[in-house]
Write a structure and sequence with these properties.
The chain is built from 11 helices and 15 strands. The strands form 2 sheets. The protein has an 11-stranded mixed β-sheet, sandwiched between helices. A 4-stranded parallel β-sheet has the order 12-15-13-14, with helices on both faces. Helix 1 crosses helix 6. It starts with 14 loop residues before the first strand and ends with a helix. The protein binds threonylcarbamoyladenylate (TXA) and magnesium ion (MG).
């Protein structure tokens, strides 16, 4: 696996900064020098660098231990005024995208989606502009674009006047961060500044949608915007990309590798393994529950089956999928930091709303 990874040896710990005008200026100066900044977004915290600067982007891959065949999302500022056709034309003028290469139907679909969902947790895969370095896109001729709604992300993008490449600010394959403190836990010895924007309100990453030349829309990653909402807005069905590629066939989205978002503690989807690790006297339980009674019932069942104590981290006990998404990565991280030898997970049923994204993250965390 090609990993761009210089040795990091317990460097100084990153500073968490409140997003005051002075601190935003500090962050902008760092970005202009080619350094990395931890950036809050409504989905998860990102590790941001100037998207036009290949050596700054190389630092992202190094800090995350991320393989260089996994392309990044470029975050863009919300322009003043209404989000009309001009958004993509403006990005084309800046060399970020080249939407003039899109046939009319595909272009119209992109415009319809961004008018409805930007700023917010939707990432669109568009023809790549001339100023985006190869490293950002892993050499693909497309680039992933997202306009985050988080006010601190927007303030930073505006002050920097640069598009910012930013993957989630975790080490490769680990749990995504949803607070500034999580970013310090993941990357504190590798970056200087994390802007504090509070806890991410969506809690799962953006939905990634590719627009083919014929206007076909394909779901590359379920996320913060539901499939139904996208289909209703675009009046067209979303094709589903296979989650992991068949052997020998490249994944539709290079980042869709099987194991991801993984705690260090083994995580199994219910009903769980036949036997627990020897000497285990407790297990963690994470999941989406329709009610307190349902959660209690599942706890009792696990205690009966394994004869151990259950440490419950309910993502929701009222079937509220937005609440569940918001709590997902923090709950996973807390259980992982405790001393349970095994985590069991109860994914949401169905595919409506955020269920698809939550089930996807739990499945990919299981190992
Ligand atoms: O919510 C989010 O999207 C967060 C925040 C920080 O904005 N970012 C994030 O980035 O999740 P990352 O790097 O962890 O995920 C990027 C996803 C990967 O699945 C990657 O493969 C896909 O986007 N991607 C990026 N460029 C692509 C391209 N040109 N074609 C297909 N997939 C692409
Ligand atoms: Mg990620």
């Amino acid at each position: 696996m090609a990993v761009l990874s210089p040795p990091f040896k317990g460097g100084p710990v990153a500073t968490i900064l409140t997003p005051s005008p002075d601190n935003l200026r500090r962050a902008v100066d760092a970005l202009r020098r080619g350094e990395l900044v931890g950036m809050p977004t409504e989905t998860v915290y990102g590790l941001a660098a100037n998207a036009f600067d290949a050596s700054a982007v190389a630092r992202i891959f190094a800090a995350k231990d991320r393989p260089s065949f996994d392309p990044l999302i470029v975050h863009v500022v919300r322009p003043a005024g209404p989000l009309e056709r001009e958004v993509l034309s403006g990005l084309e003028d800046q060399g970020v995208v080249e939407v003039s290469r899109l046939p009319q139907l595909a272009r119209e679909r992109a415009d319809v989606l961004l008018r409805r969902f930007w700023p917010g947790p939707l990432t669109l895969i568009l023809p790549r502009g001339r100023k985006i370095p190869d490293l950002v896109t892993s050499g693909l001729d497309t680039v992933a674009i997202r306009m985050p709604s988080h006010p601190v992300a927007q303030a930073l993008l505006k002050a920097a006047a640069l598009p910012l490449a930013a993957p989630s600010a975790n080490r490769f394959g680990r749990i995504s961060p949803t607070t500034a403190a999580h970013v310090v836990q993941e990357l504190g010895d590798r970056i200087g500044i994390v802007l504090d924007g509070g806890a991410s309100t969506v809690g799962v990453e953006s939905t990634v949608v590719a627009i083919a030349g014929d206007g076909t829309l394909k779901l590359l990653r379920p996320g913060g915007v539901s499939v139904e909402a996208i289909e209703a807005t675009a009046s067209v069905r979303l094709a589903r990309a296979p989650v992991t590629a068949a052997p020998g066939i490249p994944a539709a989205s290079p980042g869709m590798s099987g194991v991801h978002y993984a705690p260090r503690t083994p995580l199994h989807l219910l009903p769980g393994p036949a036997e627990l690790p020897r000497d285990a006297n407790c297990v963690g339980l994470i999941g989406v529950f329709a009610s307190k009674d349902e959660a209690a019932g599942i706890v009792a069942e696990i205690e009966r089956r394994y004869g151990v104590l259950v440490v419950l981290r309910a993502l929701t006990q009222s079937g509220d999928l937005e609440e569940a998404a918001r709590n997902l990565f923090t709950a996973m991280r807390e259980l992982d930091a405790g001393d349970v030898p095994l985590i069991l997970a109860a994914p949401p049923g169905g595919t409506e709303g955020l269920a698809l994204a939550i089930a996807d993250r739990l499945r990919r965390a299981s190992h």
